[in-house]
Design a protein that fits this description.
Order of helices and strands: EHEHHHHEHEHHEHH
Number of helices: 10
Number of strands: 5
Oligomer: single chain
CATH architecture: 3-Layer(aba) Sandwich
Strand content: 5-15%
Structural class: alpha/beta
Shape: globular
CATH class: Alpha Beta
Number of domains: 1
Length: 199
């Protein structure tokens, strides 16, 4: 019997829930590419924005920034960098989805759904104390209190997701499977997802 065709897999996640680790492990098991940080490099080339701009504005959006951008977009001379980067990311997602791969974040589950492209959509979450441990390991919080940094990154991601999809991040109806990485651990999540994909 031939192997089941591997779908495009999207992974949405709370900050510190191990999305990159799960994507990397699953990609290795399935023998396909995964895009997270590479996604930034590709989008930078497509959009003309620097990798720093794409990293900063490509998935984090404050309510204040969204309001200001919405207000200024009504003026003919204003170029909304968030919207421009999102459009570039959307183009990249659609290009990558031409073959089996794993795409982390970037509203990819909704982008593909709206284009009628079938995908396996995963949401990863964990209790805050488990994610805080991961935040400390990642050491990306600079001078901020790690717990406040975690809350901020979650808030920015949720605002971004809502702004570009009109959906709420974490709503189970937008995903095929939701996994608690804090309870299950990364390896068990990879096991489960491999079993789902291979059927």
């Amino acid at each position: 019997m031939a192997d089941k065709k591997i779908p495009v897999i999207t992974i949405s996640r709370e900050y510190g829930a191990g999305g990159r680790s799960v994507a990397r492990g699953l990609a290795a098991r399935l023998g396909i590419d995964f895009y997270d940080r590479d996604f930034v490099r590709i989008t930078s080339k497509v959009s003309g924005f620097s990798e720093e701009d794409v990293m900063r504005e490509g998935e984090d959006l404050s309510r204040r920034s969204r309001f200001i951008n919405s207000f200024l977009t009504n003026t003919s001379s204003f170029v909304n960098s968030y919207d421009t980067i999102f459009q570039a990311e959307k183009d990249v997602i659609l290009q990558l989805a031409k073959k089996p791969c794993i795409i982390v974040g970037r509203c990819s589950n909704i982008v593909l759904k709206e284009e009628g492209i079938e995908s396996l959509n995963v949401f990863l979450f964990a209790e805050p104390e488990k994610r805080l441990k991961r935040v400390l390991e990642l050491n990306e919080y600079g001078n901020m209190d790690p717990a406040k940094y975690l809350e901020k990154r979650d808030r920015l991601r949720k605002t971004y997701y809502r702004a570009y999809t009109d959906h709420e991040m974490g709503d189970c109806r937008d995903y095929n499977i939701c996994l608690d990485t804090g309870l299950l651990g990364v390896e068990k999540c990879v096991d489960i997802l491999e079993n789902v994909v291979r059927g």
